[in-house]
Amino acid sequence: MSLAFILGQKNLTYDPAGLVALYERHAPVRDAYDLAAAWTGVDVGLLLRPGDSAQRSRNTSIGLAAAMFGIADLLGGHGIQPAMVGGISLGAMVSGALCGAVSRQDVIGLLAHTDGDQRPDRAELPEGCVAAVLPLGQTYESFYGTRPGIWFGGDFGMHTSGAFRMLLLSGYRDALDQLAAGYPPEYFVFSDETVAVHSPLRYRARDVLARIAADLAFTDPAVPMCSSLEPRVLHSADQVRSEFSRNVVEPVRADHLTGQMRRLGARLGVILGPTLPRDGFEFPFPVVYVDAPDDIGQVVAAVREHDVLLPT
């Protein structure tokens, strides 16, 4: 009978209109963006609308993290606090701050420093990632097989149609292109990412992040933090610190995250920011999305409708 905050991955193609409206209308969201801008030296306009700037990837990460912090604070002003938190990819790092294990400034600083390292190790072998359809009844191995230069990067869960799961495949772009050529075009949606996220090719970024995180102050979470790397709940500072660096190179699974939330008694989930497709995936409990001003009232109504017990 509890409330869960769910935080999704970096989205390079989201429509910023809803977040801009939240920034303009609500002081908690404005404060979160303004702090992120002050901590990083990035103009708040670029955090709200990353556009096609040279630092688009970095600015998107920082801006979405600021949005999630601001939305959490805005909901907190309505008395809506989570009993548990958890995230996928970018969302896992933001969750570390929302659960109280690390400061927001340190998370923003990590994103500003490590997300700028977006260079493939081998320039002659461009990297990338793709969202790939896995039809119902087939396994990753039976459908895509195992190919050199491609790694399983994540499973975002069953589509609400019940017809397929959506996977993340990462690796060398030529290998991904060759794989996609053998299937209908609607089976693959290529990302604008230029690195193979959540794959062993990101070992350098993992090592950089681990070195920086080793000098940061982590504490035990004040509320449970659910992992998307494996089916477990993080309760210690060391576990959260390790999650940050592992998150760079290991695959993510939405069912690890939401399964633990359900085990902990989640009755309702709130998805912060435009980080997961609206009504795109199944969850083991009802969810509401917050990425625009009108969504706040829907969260308040959903908490009442589902008789959610809020932390005091």
TrEMBL record:
Gene3D superfamilies: Malonyl-CoA ACP transacylase, ACP-binding, Malonyl-Coenzyme A Acyl Carrier Protein, domain 2
Any one GO molecular-function label of the UniProt entry: transferase activity
Domain of life: Bacteria
InterPro entries: Ac_transferase_dom_sf, Acyl_Trfase/lysoPLipase
Protein name: ACP S-malonyltransferase
